[in-house]
Amino acid sequence: SVCEGGELFTWGQNTHGQLGVQSQTTLTPKPQLVERLKGIPLAQIAAGGAHSTAVSLSGAVYSWGKNSFGQLGLGDTKDRGCPSYVGALEHWKTVFISCGADHTAVLSKEGLVCTFGAGGSGQLGHNSTQNELLPRVVAELWGARVSRIACGRWEVPMTCLLRQHTLVYVPSLDKFYFFGSGDERQLEDEKKPNQLIPLPINSPVNTGKSCQSNDHCRSIQSIFNPICYNFNFVNVFTHFTQNSHLNGIATLEDKEVDAWISKSKRWTNIKKNIRLIFSSEACINGSFLDKRDKHFKTSKEVSGVDVSEVKRFYEKISKNQTVYQEV
After folding, report:
1. pLDDT above 70 for 65
2. Is 60 exceeded by the pLDDT of residue 232?
3. Measured in whole angstroms, how far is the alpha carbon of residue 230 from the centre of its chain?
């Protein structure tokens, strides 16, 4: 869970270090602060079977936890007990990430998809069943401009088990693409061959709407599990993607700053807002990022912060000494 002030807290099972708190404890019932990510303005978090990932507002990706299949994207199979920077995704312009049971999919701002980790069921989409230790672009989706991705991980209602697969949505074609395996529990003679490359689901699925008929629902759900009836594929896809979204950490907006200066809001509210943002390194960093995608070039050498924007902000609030002093 990420607080409005930008701090990330984790709790639960920690058998592979998936909580990111560098602890040997296998179970943590109370929320613990992930110190390694303190000060980084997080845009999104995602949890897999026993690994976790986070994406910053400037597209930096961090991963930790179980890594036996390379699902952390770090080039090896060693577990990590605290967040590690995924250097292979530097400047990839990551805007969304999804974790499966043992694999990971990443979406760039340009709509490119790369996957890594377990590939035994074809869930990486590389026309093979090999594991990938480093992020690899799904070549079959090149130029498709994907807008949404989801990795199977959860057991969902109606006894459907969706684990070793990946789903993507291409808005220009209004099509979902699927690769991997739908249900591990089917009998051998009932199993369909694994889908090794992304192929469209040939059905008139309309995003945001329910299935138009029971027959239509059954045609979609049969890809995953023939015993799941009245299965709403769109709702499950929405659950996958929304589950790892954040409401957003608190950052500065021009309209809000104007309200501070003009005192058009109650001072107690202004004071609360100022203290929330300026007591958090993450919120400050997220408030002054370079515009026009320049912040995606953030690295050890490039801060990604627009210093001229910082100066402009302080010049603006200096018009109101009460606000200035509070900041």
Report:
1. yes
2. no
3. 28
How many CA atoms are closer than 13 Å to the CA of 290, on its beta-carbon side? Answer: 14
Which has the closest alpha carbon to 63: 75, 74, 77?
74
Segment 174-187 shows an average pLDDT of: 74
Tokens 């202004």 -> residue: 270
The answer to whether the beta carbons of residues 91 and 297 sit under 8 Å apart is yes
> Does 2-201 carry CATH code 2.130.10.30?
yes
Beta-bridge mates of residue 200: 177
This prediction's pTM: 0.83
pLDDT band, very low/low/confident/very high, at 263 (cuts 50, 70, 90): confident
User: What number of H helices and E strands is found in the chain?
Assistant: 7, 16
pLDDT over 60 at 216, yes or no? no
Separation of alpha carbons 126 and 128, rounded Å: 5
List, in sequence order, the alpha helices (H) in the chain: 214-221, 233-242, 254-262, 267-278, 281-287, 307-317, 321-326
Domains in the chain: boundaries = 2-201, 211-245, 254-325
